[in-house]
Amino acid sequence: MARTPDVSLETSLSRLSDWDGVSVFEPKIPLCAFEKNELYTLLTEGYGVKKFRVKQIYQWLYHHLVDDFDEMTNLSKALRERLGKSARVRTTLAGIGHIASDGTTKFTFKLFDDAVVEAVFLPFETRNTLCISSQVGCAMGCTFCFTAQMGLVRHLTPDEIVDQVVFAKKWARDRDQNVSNIVYMGMGEPLHNLDAVIKSVAIFKHEDGLNFSRRKITVSTSGLVDAMNTFMDESDVQLAVSLNATTDIQRSKIMPVNDRYDLETLMRSLKVLPLDKRQRITLEYVMLKDFNDTIEDAQRIVKLTKGIKCKLNLIPFNPHPGSPFETPEEENIEKFQEYLRSKKVSCFRRKTRGRDEMAACGQLGEPGERPLPKHLKKRLEILHSDRMNAK
Ligand code: SF4
Fold it and tell me: Residues near 174 by Cβ (< 8 Å), separated by ≥ 6?
């Protein structure tokens, strides 16, 4: 069933009218918030633009990746000026944050309200993946995650999500590279911002625009089961789910979402998700030393994943300030993986990237002076005290 678009011309205008006093952004309609058919309606009905011109504008946005109407040289000067008065090509101010020793590059995006989100470009041998953000901060409060320390500041709009990919593609193009894959694994819980994520996915996939294959886009969730079911009904891209623990007691200690959707509920839902023949759910498993890295955990994973079309992604924990966790020893990670493979669990290990520049998984964001969210503070205190007692 089609969802009501969350960014109509009216809502865009009313949202943008709140931008008074903002220095670097003008309150204009963000063209990258619209799917092609919506853009067609907006430009033909709102601006009287001819149909073939809409196609040209769409190509300027997503093939040529321009930043400004002035660059749309096959449009008349009068049309460019008219569009420029009330619409915008770019929504964010992008900058390159850090380049880690392995080539991982962190981009920062300043938003209209001075909030900042991050995206990470990860060059691999056979592909370049862009990890993008869907929220400023995150409400989910996972205790192993740096972004969680910010709490949720706000959802990103579709154009703020799209801008991350357009900027990175342009940056990569200038270096004779490309962005081949998109993963929604940066700041935020994508399925907590469901409408904007669904819309941005549609924009990424459109064959006249960025034209990403559905197999090259992965949306991840901490396990919001209802939103996950809705998402899978409405979108056909790849799904990743953070498992991270093998018992409810253990999982609730690190992921408050488990109090709402326990392991049984989550795994039962994964079993019946509508997947095509080749599709597999990726189960993410952040490995935390002396917490979830034992052979007993591996044994429970074998049971939990039975009957689920999935592959397991092991992610050795990436340390960050204030965390009660450490990275497991290499030997333990290898034993864990070997055990799972011996039991025919499809199991991979995610290579750690960008750790030296806080660009690795779970390291994004800038909590600044903001106090820790209460629910996170309480859980972290318990974990720190468990750790002290174990010593
Ligand atoms: S791991 Fe993901 S869902 Fe959990 S707090 Fe961090 S950003 Fe949010």
Answer: none
